[in-house]
Design a protein that fits this description.
Largest sheet: 5 strands, parallel
Distance between the termini: 42 Å
Number of helices: 17
Strand order of the largest sheet: 5-2-1-9-17
Strand content: 5-15%
Oligomer: single chain
Structural class: alpha+beta
């Protein structure tokens, strides 16, 4: 099957405008007769549901949380990118486009990325109008800071809780439409299948998580904004409920799954402390604006720190290795996430990790506190040589910029990051892979759309920091509302979609059969037992560094673990009640299939690109070696077992960017 990305013709900068001028539209009277299902209420799903309802469509929105505002988007901290050039430092739509393609190691689609950069400025205006409290400079103008992989300041932020504030904006817009009756909200409902009628997505099967009731819901189109699959690793920065089920069910109904091996390892997370943990905590990348990352130069100092006979603050400046500044002088501590993560792993593997497990490096704010303190002393006409005063003033500035992050770190680690450096280490954070979509954000299944982190389209092999929020809101507010209208224009005479058809009956029966098996299995091990085992296979063999031998082993081990799961998992309770273990079991079952496809995808991609680092393909300096023959999107077609999945390739053509070795030196 040929993959048609449906990219408009013409110059790159004109494609989106030309497209919008030529698409079919649905008039307001006809929109009232069209139903759209939106699964997920994070920034992508929430903004899409609100905008589609505002346009006049009848929207049915679903989330498995008790409220739309509990979507995982709320956890995003550092900011959202937009090419507004408020700092006058040379930013532009093209610069954001270029940084994104380069940051993704030349593995993303040009047309989609340019459109993302183009609409980014509109997002900020939209959110300011909604009342999102972005940080402002003294004069009242919106403030910006830098994130990894760029040389400009284009990240808008609201302290260290940007995702929360943006989600509240989308949630408010949703609530307005819920109040008008244009959005019918289904909280505590989990999508467990997509229903295909005559080749088109016409509805979903859900389980009411409170009562256990299996329900049929129909619509003229289905939109998945259900997030990423980082929890396939068990330990990640994702909320514990985050899962792949909605996207995976779509995949099993014919939607291609693209680039599953592209996973982002975030360099700035609180290190693992033991097997007792159920998730990891992200410390925002914004901290790398002012924090300097280092390890001791001498192993005797490392040993002393681990033995608690030496404090990091006692190590002299000349005895510290600021390894990112040393290796990448042009970008320093603001290299992209994949580069920073591998560099931290290299230092830890070499024996310079600073915690008990040997898997931690320092993120130090002492220099920033002193710099800001002296600046404030000058501004206030005070003594800039008074060390105590400078420290106090500097800490106040840092508290204003990052206070809630510092507070969170101290609550978890029980150390004061104003006085001693933070300890950080890479952890699974975001997934660039997802359902394959064309320029319209539609999968290869007509009427089935995927937006935000649920699709693969914008970030290539590595997402730049602060671009997740940008993509989610771009898709929901400014892209999907146009593209879905072009498709729905053919449905104005269709009428309501009935749920009393054999397609809905068969899909519902399959869901019930699967649930019955899990409830009646009476195995000996819990769901978490299998999830943790899967997570260790994924992290050890499909994590920050991969090789052919480990990937082949992972494929076999995951296949065997999946068979064991279905034979030996134990799910207590019944299916006619609130049963979180049952919900979790279904999600882990899907992870056990995705994990094998993930490893299969990583094995066939014999190169290193972005977050996919194959040990066989690296330079003498440990940098990634990308190969031109892998300049494509790998889109996998479901054929039963993951080992039988069929690969389809969408060749990536670059007409506006010269593909070259990525360098941040």
């Amino acid at each position: 099957m040929a993959l048609d990305s449906k990219i408009p013709q013409g110059p790159l900068a004109d494609k989106w405008t030309t497209y919008k001028n030529e698409i079919n539209l649905v008039n307001p009277a006809n929109k009232r007769n069209i139903d759209v299902i939106v699964v997920g209420t994070g920034l992508a799903g929430g903004s899409a549901a609100a905008t589609l309802a505002e346009l006049g469509y009848n929207v049915k929105a679903f989330c498995f949380q008790d409220s739309p505002r509990r979507a995982h988007s709320i956890a995003a901290q550092g900011g959202i990118n937009a090419a507004k050039n408020y700092q006058g430092d040379g930013d532009s739509t093209y610069r954001l486009f270029y940084d994104t393609v380069k940051g993704g190691d030349y593995r993303s689609r040009e047309a989609n990325v340019y459109r993302l950069a183009e609409v980014s400025a509109n997002i900020i205006d939209q959110c300011v109008a909604q009342g999102v409290p972005f940080a402002r400079e003294y004069g009242g103008l919106l403030d910006n800071r830098s994130f990894g992989g760029v040389l400009v300041s284009r990240t808008f932020y609201a302290a260290g809780q940007t995702g929360q504030q943006l989600l509240l904006g989308a949630y408010s817009a949703m609530n307005r439409q819920i109040g008008r009756g244009k959005i019918k909200m289904y909280n505590r409902h989990e999508m467990l299948d997509v229903v295909i009628v005559d080749g088109k997505a016409r509805g979903i099967i859900t389980r009411n998580l409170i009562t256990g009731e299996i329900e049929r819901h129909s619509a003229h189109a289905v939109v998945l904004g259900s997030g990423g699959y980082g929890n396939v690793f068990f330990l990640s920065t994702n909320a514990m409920g985050s899962n792949v089920t909605a996207a995976w069910k779509a995949h099993k109904r014919g939607a291609f799954f693209a680039n599953p091996c592209y996973t982002q390892i975030h360099p700035t997370c609180i290190p693992v402390s033991g097997d007792h943990q159920s998730k990891l905590t992200l410390m925002s990348e914004s901290l790398r604006n002012d924090g300097r990352i280092w390890v001791p130069k001498h192993k005797k100092d490392v040993e002393a720190i681990r033995n608690k006979t030496l404090k990091p603050t006692e190590i002299k400046e000349e005895d510290r290795d600021y390894y990112l500044e040393r290796r990448y002088p042009a970008f320093g501590n603001l290299v992209p996430r994949d580069v920073a993560s591998r560099a931290a792993k290299e230092r830890a593997d070499a024996g310079y990790g600073v915690n008990a497990t040997g898997e931690a490096v320092y993120l130090d704010f002492a220099s920033a506190i002193e710099r800001y303190g002296k600046e404030q002393a000058y501004v206030k006409g005070l003594d800039a040589n008074d060390a105590a005063l400078v420290k106090k003033l500097g800490q106040e500035v840092v508290k204003t910029k990052y206070g809630n992050l510092f507070q969170m770190y101290e609550k978890i680690v029980d150390e004061n990051p104003y006085e001693t450096p933070m300890m950080i280490y890479p952890a699974v954070h975001y997934t660039m892979g997802g359902l394959w979509v064309d320029y319209n954000l539609m999968t290869n299944v007509p009427g089935l759309y995927a937006i935000g982190e649920a699709n693969f389209s914008d970030h290539g092999a590595n997402r730049l920091g602060a671009s997740a929020l940008m993509q989610g809101l771009a898709d929901g507010y400014f892209v999907l509302p146009y593209t879905i209208g072009d498709y729905l224009a053919d449905d104005i005479r269709t009428g309501p979609i009935s749920t009393e058809t054999k397609e809905f009956e068969e899909a519902e029966a399959e869901v019930k059969q699967r649930i019955e098996h899990l409830i009646n299995n009476n195995g000996t091990h819990s769901v978490d037992y299998f999830h943790k085992r899967l997570g260790k296979i994924m992290w050890n063999k499909c994590g920050m560094a991969r090789n052919a031998e480990d990937l082949k082993s992972a494929i076999n081990e995951i296949s065997e673990l999946r068979a064991e799961f279905w034979k030996d998992v134990r799910v207590p309770g019944t299916n006619e009640e609130f049963n979180e273990e049952l919900a979790k079991a279904g999600r882990v079952a899907d992870f056990l299939e995705l994990g094998e496809l993930f490893a299969k995808d990583a094995l066939q991609r014999e190169e290193s690109a972005g977050g996919h680092f194959r040990e066989e393909y690296q330079t003498e300096e440990g940098e990634a070696v990308r190969k031109k023959e892998f300049q494509y999107v790998s889109a996998w077609e479901y054929k039963g077992e993951p080992k039988d999945a069929v690969l389809h390739k969408e060749e990536l053509v670059y007409e506006n960017i010269k593909v070259k070795e990525r360098s941040y030196k």
